[in-house]
Amino acid sequence: MKKLTLFFLFFLILGSGLSYGQTLYRTSVGELSFFSKTPVLDIEAVNKKVGAILNAGTKDLAIQAKITDFQFPNKLMQEHFNENYLESERFPSTKFAGKIKEEVDFSKPGTYPVTAEGNLTIHGVTKPVQVKGTIVATATALQVNFSFQVRTADYQIEVPTLVFDKIAETITITGKFNLVKQ
């Protein structure tokens, strides 16, 4: 599955106008987490098997995560998340495909505030999003960090009334990636 995910990401970048000779940065062990805070219950999960690729020349960015790779502190929460909310058998992955807006020379070491605009797909629903983050460039890698919020209703994630007070309407998604130069 890891090879399939990386193939998808590479294909996505190729399809968006990659010309040979441009620098690619990638990882297959990026970290994506989410957090839901309510007065009744805090829920968080992390996925440390996230694939990402960035074309430094075109600034195209693609990220893909397998839903079942999100790990919860409680196995019952994980089961409910996969079966009842995200329906991971029907919708096995989440993905982002977009472009960094700012003009940044990633070959120069430094810290760059960036904004990525693109399409986020969760639960089979694709919506345009704008994500603010930071990229720290070194000679051989890019450290990417971001955080943004999504509304469960926007992605047609139904929350049963029995647990409505335990799951937030807005979920915070955080990403940490160490993309290595290829």
What would your notes on this structure say?
The chain has a single domain (2-181), classed as Lipocalin (Beta Barrel), CATH 2.40.128. Residues 11-19 have low confidence and may be disordered. The chain starts with a helix and ends with a strand. It has two helices and eight strands. A hairpin with a 2-residue loop joins strand 5 (110-122) and strand 6 (125-137). With 182 residues, it is mainly beta. The protein has helices at residues 2-15, 75-85; strands spanning 24-37, 42-55, 60-66, 93-100, 110-122, 125-137, 141-151, 170-181.
CATH fold-level label: Lipocalin
How many distinct beta strands? 8
Overall CATH class: Mainly Beta
Number of helical segments with 4 or more residues: 2
Strand order of the largest sheet: 1-2-3-4-5-6-7-8
Strand % is over 45%
| Count of domain modules | 1
Q: Major β-sheet, in short?
A: 8 strands, antiparallel, barrel
CATH H-tier superfamily: Lipid/polyisoprenoid-binding, YceI-like
- Distance separating the two termini: 21 Å
Spans of at least 5 consecutive residues whose pLDDT stays below 50 are: 11-19
Estimate the helix proportion, in percent: 10-25%
How are the secondary structure elements laid out?
Blueprint lengths: L1 H14 L8 E14 L4 E14 L4 E7 L8 H11 L7 E8 L9 E13 L2 E13 L3 E11 L18 E12 L1
Antiparallel strand pairs: 1-2, 1-8, 2-3, 3-4, 4-5, 5-6, 6-7, 7-8
